[in-house]
Amino acid sequence: MPVMTMVQAINSALDSKLADDERVLCYGEDLGVEGGVFRVTENLQSKYGRRRVFDTPLAESSVVGTAVGMAIAGLRPVVEIQFDGFVHPAFNQIVSHVSRFRYRTRGRMPMPIVIRFPSGGGVRALELHSDSPEALFGHIPGLKVVMPSTPYDAKGLLISAIEDDDPVIFMEPKRIYRAIKQEVPEGLYRIPIGKARLLSEGGNITVVAYGAIVRIVQQAMIELKKESIAVELIDARSLYPLDTATIVASVKRTGHLLVVHEAPESYGAAAEIIARVTQEAFYYLEAPPARLAGHDTPPPLPKSEDLYFFGPERVAYEVKRVLAARP
Amino acid sequence: MPVMTMVQAINSALDSKLADDERVLCYGEDLGVEGGVFRVTENLQSKYGRRRVFDTPLAESSVVGTAVGMAIAGLRPVVEIQFDGFVHPAFNQIVSHVSRFRYRTRGRMPMPIVIRFPSGGGVRALELHSDSPEALFGHIPGLKVVMPSTPYDAKGLLISAIEDDDPVIFMEPKRIYRAIKQEVPEGLYRIPIGKARLLSEGGNITVVAYGAIVRIVQQAMIELKKESIAVELIDARSLYPLDTATIVASVKRTGHLLVVHEAPESYGAAAEIIARVTQEAFYYLEAPPARLAGHDTPPPLPKSEDLYFFGPERVAYEVKRVLAARP
Amino acid sequence: MSRAQVSEGTLIDYRHEDRAGIDVASLFEAFDPLRGAKLSILDESGAIVDKQWMPDLGPEAILEAYRAMVLARVADTKAVSLQRQGRLYTLPPNLGQEAAAVGSAMALEKTDWMVPAYRELGAWLWKGVPLKVVYLWYAGSEYGNVFPPDTRILPICVPISTQLLHAAGIGHAIAYRGGSDVVISYFGDGGTSEGDFHEALNWSAVFNCPVIFFCNNNQYAISCPRRDQTRSETIAQKAIAYGIPGIQIDGNDLFAVYRATREAAHHARSGRGPVLIEAETYRMGAHTTSDDPGRYREKAEEEAWKGRDPLLRVRRYLEAAGLWNESLESAALEDAGRKADQGSREAEALPPNDADEIFRHAFAELTPELQAQKNALKTFLKWKESS
Amino acid sequence: MSRAQVSEGTLIDYRHEDRAGIDVASLFEAFDPLRGAKLSILDESGAIVDKQWMPDLGPEAILEAYRAMVLARVADTKAVSLQRQGRLYTLPPNLGQEAAAVGSAMALEKTDWMVPAYRELGAWLWKGVPLKVVYLWYAGSEYGNVFPPDTRILPICVPISTQLLHAAGIGHAIAYRGGSDVVISYFGDGGTSEGDFHEALNWSAVFNCPVIFFCNNNQYAISCPRRDQTRSETIAQKAIAYGIPGIQIDGNDLFAVYRATREAAHHARSGRGPVLIEAETYRMGAHTTSDDPGRYREKAEEEAWKGRDPLLRVRRYLEAAGLWNESLESAALEDAGRKADQGSREAEALPPNDADEIFRHAFAELTPELQAQKNALKTFLKWKESS
Ligand SMILES: Cc1ncc(C[n+]2csc(CCOP(=O)(O)OP(=O)(O)O)c2C)c(N)n1
Ligand SMILES: Cc1ncc(C[n+]2csc(CCOP(=O)(O)OP(=O)(O)O)c2C)c(N)n1
Ligand SMILES: [Mg+2]
Ligand SMILES: [Mg+2]
Q1: Which among A61, A68, A241 is the nearest to C199, CB-wise?
Q2: End-to-end distance of chain B based on CA atoms, in angstroms?
Q3: d(CA C118, CA C155)
Q4: Pairing with A96, which of A302, B66, B301, C255 sits 20 to 30 Å away (CA)?
Q5: How close, in Å, is residue C235 to chain D by CA atoms?
Q6: Within 10 Å of residue B30's Cβ, how many Cβ atoms?
């Protein structure tokens, strides 16, 4: 089986679906000739032609708005926004149309659209290249929101997303675009959207993370193990739908919960996870469920990045704080 | 003291600040000649002239984007978006600039901007005229987010918002624009942003609400009282900053929490409130903190509105459910 | 145009009647908006003032168009009056814009796509939307967005000008597949100010999408007059920014609307890309039933436009041609009234929605979140009933 | 222009030298983009090819402009090389666009506002931004957005074309106060496709805001060539959509840039509203230091543009006029090198930020949320140090 980075795995998913389904188109800024600023779409245009894989004018509202029209006309557009911070010009089309057309038309005009973009910080990038807007999309009814943490998941989830009859916001943790190599099958396979992955069972605490943060928690776990602290690590994978059942089952076993993400804390995804867990596993909780998240500021520029984006040490520290909590 | 509806109280706040401060401008679509589609800005143009109170082209990104420039040039724009659902074309300007300019420039270019709009459902309106996007704004670092529930608060909070050196999203619960009349002082007075209001002290449960929902909870309380259930009702008033201290203090007294809002449940404001309360009052909680919120669908059109937007009965029912919870 | 398939088959099929002879470029060159030109064929008295551009429409076609305008007006008037009685919710009256709606719709083929804004009732009806469905939308039902199969029309679009990108996308999909359909998308003078207007025209031009951007310049965006919306002399000249043809026409002139749309469709269909049409008309009624135009415009202005009524001049034309008279007019009004009554009765007969319905279609399959929310609602409703 | 206040006082004050004689309308009429006209004054050989429009700039002014272009080039080259050494982060090279930057900036007054995109280094320096501050931005510090007091410039703007609305807003504020300042805002050919471009020009036209929309058409938006960005022949003609003047100029021609900007400023300053300038230039380097143009354009094209280097032709002009020679060139390069070294040293001397700094300026006063987050971070950092 070939070994791939996440960039290659995503490319492979797009390649497989372009080959598989004539209705699939890929487009966005600099995605065709150039193969994307991260080379995620490399070689796809030369393979599938300019009609199916193409560069667009510099206009994100167009990229998403035309996808709505294409979906209505029976196509399955997979569009790319160049960076997290540039999804906002398309926000109106997403909120007003992508997410609502099926509901609006009583199922007559579904929106099989995937909106892909590299997300998150930690890569010493310019302003608005380090944002993590997943909670915004999670709150918009009608969208599915997905973020993989491994090449294997990335490909399987993206194929599911493209085959999904509903719109999927597919967020790619750019920090680990090339950080992890993994065996990834060629051809088509699916990972269901809405299922979390339990990475390690048996422990004193449940830690829920997703995207690039999963790896940081795994690094923290090595240190924690030395102190005999075992973690049940859950990769949420999908923020909406959220696999509450898997998380709740784990918390019922461990009695402790820490949710970790790099997006700003207030009104972030951790709040939602904690609200669900306290609703469904309240009597199993031995300590206040906690969160470790980005600060309520914009991600600072590279010079201060390391103060904003935490590493394994901070995760380990917060795990221990949860475990040490006493009334 | 004059008796005012919320529409009149907001008009009075704008009037007072226009009179008080030459740097204040009010603009938006149909806000000048017409006085706004809800007549919130009635007579302001004739009083302060077309330079200070004016109609704009039909372009929300412009309305907000020019406010950024005006703020940099030393003005204090108070802009109106015609309806909740039309704030999204301006989302990029809000996320990328309004919320970030102070941080970006190390305080040199603050954004004393107020973005006002009527929000929420229950008025039998067209699509995209019934949305409640407060949690989206709560998650964007750099914004303050406010929603009054009475005419008195509306005026005092709006004056604070206009005088605030940071940007404030000022959401007006259109459902109660004219539903409540109250004595409201003429002239200037302030209600601090970030302070919740405890409406009733002493009870078996804390209910947190804001905007139009406060009134519905109050109606439910009348019924609940008959069953000897007393509620500590808190009007959050400000979603960001959120007055965690007041809420936590109440939950410590009551041991029970229900958060109520009409926005969709998942990734909504109730999750944030619950996450904070479980963090800070965990050992005082006697039952799982609960939420009553809108469904994870768009608000349906008027014909189904009553199935989506709950009334006092449902609130009472959920209060009793929280109180009846057993392990 | 193959109207035969949509209506009752009383019409000639004039699909090809004026196709061959069209010299598209010459229309758009002859009416260069920068030189102040404006296409106008039928004047207020019912006379043909520009024979060169008069479309080759047979009597039946013109009669059918007139009846369609009458139906649009009667159905619209009915809607406004039902709204006043509290039987419909807020809705946008169409009064005065019937020629622009019907004339543009009749210039297209059944297989072409229509992307509405919200004030083109006559076009939707021509396209095959049942009156019942229109009234359902006005009645606050999502079933107002459900059309008969193969009716290539999108629902009313509330957020201004966002629909233009959908039109571009449909046009793009047509071009991708090598089809020969075209798309017509409607919007208002106010709609030209939104960024999406700009993006949709630019995209369509770049990718040569077969889209007709049809602007109903009715002089107002709610209270904002056209002159305060943009400083360009015409809206048509905005086409120059995209390197595409733009034309200003009398939007209250059925023949000018038909002719311009037909040539734009031919232009688009033959792979030459999008066209911008500015149809000058007037919103004779309120913006919506919640609006009071008295707050922002003069009665005198409204009066002046009454003389330019788009129905009146076709009627005069038909009468002069001996094709119409008082009794035909009464019959047409009566017929339209019957249809409107029936449509509104059918709409009112729709039962109220239940809890299942408001969760349906959020996704192809309910998410666990929605399933839980639905259960909670139904449990509550059951409890409520039983208590 | 009162450059005296910004620079070291070696310059003549040419504030009024060509003001009186300007007939603004005639420039914009003479160079109608629809007739394919393009303002070009200084050709590649250094010859003046259009004497009529040659601005009345004295030798000192031209020498200063040339030195400013040299400084921009040297400072930019330095930045790129520091980036390659890992001492700066991703940055957008300016190579080839120096005339557009310096020529436009020097046409304005000190009290005018400048609203950058991110590729106008020469303009920022002229405006008074210290090199240190520029390097700080490239070094990933927010202090790269902090300018000396009274320097009327906004920070680099990352989201494309959003800054144009800020320019419109500043222009609106100036008009509101009855001031006579103008605003210049920069953007690229790619930037013309965003909705905000359209909205900013429309708003400025409607409210007569004194804004110069200066498009650096450098033929590419990352990999997307100009012809795929929009179908209009020129970007200048997009002005017609807003009823304002638009002009296409040779953006590598210092004199054309200066002249057009100066007349646009006069137009705006005298209350006639915004102007759109399309400066045709070429991005001789990569889009950013992370970009590889070899993936999307031909070497031959790059070679062709080398002959049109904006510095070269001014140098030839000055040499022909006996105002420049090899040794002055060396001295200028050396001086620029010294300044760049010093700026980069100063930037590198900035100490790293601490925990307090990253919370500062989120709001005027820290919210309780931020206070708690800051406390948590500091507690952790203390714990980390101690363990
Ligand atoms: C994005 C957006 N902003 C604001 C509104 C509110 N609104 C509804 S119609 C309208 C005016 C539209 O004017 P125009 O485009 O000329 O069309 P007309 O109503 O005249 O047919 C406005 C401002 C909206 N529907 N969408
Ligand atoms: C809204 C937005 N979308 C995408 C980007 C990513 N991006 C940065 S520069 C650029 C191309 C800009 O081209 P142009 O406007 O011609 O300016 P140039 O870089 O050529 O100076 C793109 C797509 C961005 N910064 N902002
Ligand atoms: Mg209009
Ligand atoms: Mg460019």
Answers
A1: A61
A2: 52
A3: 9
A4: B66
A5: 8
A6: 24
Q: How far, in Å, CA of D284 to CA of D76, rounded? A: 12
| Whether D163 contacts D115, CB under 8 Å | yes
Name the pLDDT band for C6 (thresholds 50, 70, 90). very low
| Paired residues of A171 in beta bridges | A117
Ligand 2 centroid, distance to D225 Cα (angstroms): 12
| pLDDT value, residue C387 | 86
Global confidence as pTM:
0.97
Q: Phi and psi (nearest 5°) for B189?
A: -150, 160
**Cβ pair B241:D369 closer than 8 A:** yes
Distance CA D234, CA C242 (A): 9
Tracing tokens 């005419």 back to the chain, one arrives at B151
- The token duo for D282 is 């070429």
Query: Which parts of chain D have pLDDT scores under 50?
Result: 1-21
Distance from CA of B59 to the nearest CA of C (A): 5
Task: Indicate the residue of C194, C358, C380 with minimum beta-carbon distance to B89.
Answer: C194
Amino acid at D362: A
CA-CA distance, D157 to D164, in Å (whole number)? 10
Q: Measured in whole angstroms, how far is the alpha carbon of residue A307 from the centre of its chain?
A: 23
- DSSP type of residue B9: H
Rounded to 5 degrees, what angle do the CA atoms C207, C210, C212 make? 120
Residues with CB under 6 A from ligand 1: B 29, 58, 60, 82, 86, 89; C 119, 158-160, 187-191, 216, 218, 220-222, 283, 287
**Is C304 in a helix, a strand, or coil?**
helix
Contacts of C343 (CB under 8 A, 6+ apart): C75, C130, C131, C132, C134, C135
Query: Cis ω on the peptide bond leading into residue A57 (within 30° of 0)?
Result: no
Compute the distance between CA of residue B118 and CA of residue B28 in angstroms, rounded to an integer.
13
Q: What is the DSSP letter of C271?
A: I
Average pLDDT, chain C: 94
pLDDT, tens digit (0-9, with 9 covering 90-100), for C34-56: 999 999 999 999 999 999 999 99
Atom number, ligand 1, closest to the C-alpha of residue C97: 21
Q: Are C277 and C256 in contact (CB under 8 A)?
A: no
Q: Tell me which residue has tokens 């964007």.
A: B140
Burial D332-371 (b: 16+ CB within 10 A, else e): beeebbebbeebbeebeeeeebebebbbbbbbeebbebbe
Here the tokens at position B100 are 């970030």
pLDDT tens digit sequence for C208-256: 999 999 999 999 999 999 999 999 999 999 999 999 999 999 999 999 9
Give the ligand with the smallest distance to the CA of D191.
Answer: 2
HSE of C139, CA atoms in CB hemisphere, 13 A = 23
Q: Given C194, C206, C232, which is nearest D241 (Cβ)?
A: C232
**CB–CB contact D359 A295 (8 Å):** yes
Q: What is the pLDDT of residue D3?
A: 29
Asked if C273's CB is within 8 angstroms of D206's CB, the reply is no
Establish if B326 touches chain D: CB-CB under 8 angstroms.
Answer: no
For chain D, what's the residue count?
A: 387
Contact B141/A298, CB-based, under 8 Å?
Answer: yes
- CA separation, residue A244 to residues A240, B271, C378 (Å): 10, 14, 21
Predicted confidence at residue A236, as pLDDT, reads 98
DSSP code for A298: P
The pair of three-digit structure tokens given for residue C242, joined into one six-digit string: 């995209």
- Is-contact A7 A40, C-beta < 8 A? yes
Question: Using CA atoms, how far apart are residues D321 and D49, in angstroms rounded to an integer?
Answer: 15
Determine the residue of C121, C160, C296 to mutate for testing ligand 1's pocket, defined as the one with the most ligand atoms within 8 A of the Cβ atom: C160
What is the per-residue pLDDT across A229-240, written as a single tens digit (0 to 9) for each? Answer: 999 999 999 999
Name the percent of chain C in helix, strand, coil, to the closest 5.
50, 10, 40
